[in-house]
């Protein structure tokens, strides 16, 4: 579904993605973790071309991103992206946030789009907020609307860039629950997160990045119980000293 | 001057009162038609100014520099006296079939105001966080359609208060159109003065009307800020 082969990217002199090789199969959930500044956001943003790669090949859903003939807008319509800061459209009500793209880009009738949006809102447990504006919602609610907005285009892949990092602790659970549901439904997902409990429960593969390189890629059990690199060990220790044992069992 | 007798009745009823009211109507017509047209033109210029294409950006800049850096009065004279040589015959015929003074005044005011509105809209767009464009593009919107459905609607909402300011400027600037014979409020006040020598009353009335327009509009903007902008502002 997603194939990185020897992908490199620079921001000026900064080698932000260094020979990335990564393959995500259909229906797979991959969690990406690593210290701040290691290139996680850049990596996930190349998948829908919010960032362009400098060389290597990146094939997403059968489309080659370095091929100039690839219709990038069409590709993006197949990929949902959930941001750390939600980025809902503040001038639109919840329901219109969700229906805008299906109506304008998929030519759905308003009625069909709203019906579908209500199903999605029910799925994220926010049906009663259909007419609220983003400013009237809590962070957790906004993020769930953002997930519903992404799903409204019936994407084949969902990308999450630290979806719970901007949330108050008590709201993290509600967002993770929605994501876990989504994973169970067979969605292909790439998730940048520091929620290691989620990684252990849900991920098929955990990817550890450091300084633009993928240092480890392993199923969660191996990653948590038996990290190979010192950097990964350090990272895990800093992150979850108290519950390290719980993650490896 | 000591023998000057105030007579407010002439502006409250009768023929001179009617003159002033008809002047007010023309002022409002100029301002309302002007703000709508200059908003549309300003939107086009703003989009061109932000275009990726050099030709568009460049023409927009030339337009902006010319219109903002020459006196409005000169521009009014230009359209009134000079446009004949510039415009195609059809346009001239249309101008003559309506009121030529009114049309020339409206064109000059529209073009002048649109330059300021274009810059207001542009700073509105620049104030929208770039993440909004990213979110829209992630859903599959092209740059232009993202502008159309997501960025410009937000920018225009932010631009409403400065836009209303431009409307007030327009209402006040429209008094310059009297110089080419547009019978707007100031022109009529001047007429009343020359027929009755009651200049103080006539211009006091005109001043109060301009003031009233400003106060009403300012009040409406405050209401708008309070009710609409608060609800729509980014969370
Ligand atoms: N648009 C950009 N221009 C220049 N440098 C950038 C840009 N975006 C990110 N960087 C830099 O690239 C590095 C990796 O950033 P990022 O992918 O956001 O890391 P992470 O998400 O792992 O924290 C950081 O050093 C960051 O400062
Ligand atoms: Mg990041």
Bound molecules: adenosine-5'-diphosphate, magnesium ion
Helix content of chain B: over 70%
Mean pLDDT of chain A: 93
Determine the oligomeric state from the structure: heterodimer
Shape of chain B: globular
CATH architecture of chain B: Orthogonal Bundle
In which range does the helix fraction of chain A lie? Answer: 25-40%
Could you give the order of the helices and strands of chain A? EEEHEEHEHHHEHEHEEHHH
**Biggest sheet descriptor of chain A:** 6 strands, mixed
Number of helices of chain B: 10
Low-confidence stretches of chain A: none
Descriptive key words:
heterodimer, A: 249 residues, alpha/beta, six-stranded mixed sheet, four-stranded antiparallel sheet, 10 strands, globular, B: 235 residues, mainly alpha, MetI-like fold, 82% helix, 0% strand, binds adenosine-5'-diphosphate, binds magnesium ion
Characterization of the model:
The complex is a heterodimer of chains A (249) and B (235). The model of chain A has no long low-confidence stretch (mean pLDDT 93). Helices cover 39% and strands 24% of the residues of chain A. In chain A, a hairpin with a 2-residue loop joins strand 9 and strand 10 (213-218). Chain A has a 6-stranded mixed β-sheet, with helices on both faces. A 4-stranded antiparallel β-sheet of chain A has the order 2-1-4-5, covered by helices on one side. Chain A is an alpha/beta fold. Chain B has 235 residues and is mainly α. Chain B has one domain (9-234): MetI-like fold (Orthogonal Bundle), CATH 1.10.3720.10. Chain B starts with 8 loop residues before the first helix and ends with a helix. Chain A binds chain B through residues 48, 50, 73-74, 76-81, 83, 85-91, 100-101, 104-105, 133-137, 142, 149-150, 153, and chain B through 131-132, 134-142, 145, 149-150, 153-154, 157, 230-235. The complex binds adenosine-5'-diphosphate and magnesium ion (MG).
Please give a quick description of this structure:
The complex is a heterodimer of chains A (249) and B (235). Chain A has 249 residues and is α/β, with parallel strands linked by helices.
């Amino acid at each position: 579904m997603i194939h990185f082969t020897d992908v490199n990217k620079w921001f000026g002199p900064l080698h932000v993605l260094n020979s990335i090789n990564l393959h995500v199969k259909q229906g797979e959930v991959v969690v990406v973790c690593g210290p701040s500044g290691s290139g996680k956001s850049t990596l996930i943003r190349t998948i829908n071309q919010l960032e362009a790669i400098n060389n290597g090949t990146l094939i997403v859903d059968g489309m080659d991103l370095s091929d100039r003939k690839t219709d990038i807008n069409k590709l993006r319509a197949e990929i949902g992206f959930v941001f750390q800061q939600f980025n809902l459209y503040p001038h639109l009500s919840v329901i219109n946030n969700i229906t805008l793209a299906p109506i304008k880009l998929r030519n759905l009738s308003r009625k069909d789009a709203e019906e579908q949006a209500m199903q999605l809102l029910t799925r994220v447990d926010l049906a009663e907020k259909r007419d609220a504006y983003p400013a009237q919602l809590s962070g957790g609610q906004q993020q769930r609307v953002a997930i519903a907005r992404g799903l409204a285009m019936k994407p084949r892949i969902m990308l999450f860039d630290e979806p719970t990092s901007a949330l108050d602790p008590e709201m993290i659970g509600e967002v993770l629950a929605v994501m876990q549901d989504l994973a169970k439904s067979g969605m292909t997902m790439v998730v940048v997160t520091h929620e290691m409990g989620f990684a252990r429960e849900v991920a098929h593969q955990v990817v550890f990045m450091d300084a633009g390189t993928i240092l480890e890629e392993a199923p969660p059990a191996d990653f948590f119980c038996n990290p190979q690199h010192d950097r990964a060990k350090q990272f895990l220790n800093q992150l979850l000293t108290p519950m390290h044992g719980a993650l490896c069992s | 001057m000591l023998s000057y007798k105030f007579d407010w009745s002439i502006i409250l009823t009768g023929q001179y009162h009617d003159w002033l009211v008809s002047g007010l109507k023309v002022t409002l017509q100029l301002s309302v038609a002007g703000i709508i047209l200059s908003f549309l033109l300003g939107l086009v210029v703003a989009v061109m100014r932000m275009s990726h294409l050099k030709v568009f950006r460049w023409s927009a800049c030339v337009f902006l520099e010319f219109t903002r850096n020459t006196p409005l009065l000169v521009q009014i004279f230009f359209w009134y006296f000079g446009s004949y040589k510039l415009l195609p015959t059809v346009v001239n015929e249309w101008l003559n079939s309506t009121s030529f003074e009114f049309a020339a005044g409206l064109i000059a005011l529209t073009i002048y105001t649109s330059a300021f509105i274009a810059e207001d809209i542009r700073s509105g767009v620049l104030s929208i966080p770039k993440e909004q464009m990213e979110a829209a593009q992630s859903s599959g919107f092209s740059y232009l359609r993202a502008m159309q459905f997501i960025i410009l609607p937000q920018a225009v909402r932010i631009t409403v208060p400065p836009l209303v300011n431009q409307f007030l400027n327009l209402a006040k600037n429209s008094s310059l159109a009297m110089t080419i014979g547009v019978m707007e409020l100031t022109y009529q006040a001047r007429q009343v003065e020359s027929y009755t020598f009651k200049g103080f009353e006539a211009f006091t009335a005109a001043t109060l009307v301009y003031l009233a327009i400003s106060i009403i509009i300012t009040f409406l903007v405050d209401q708008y800020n309070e009710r609409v902008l608060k609800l729509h502002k980014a969370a």
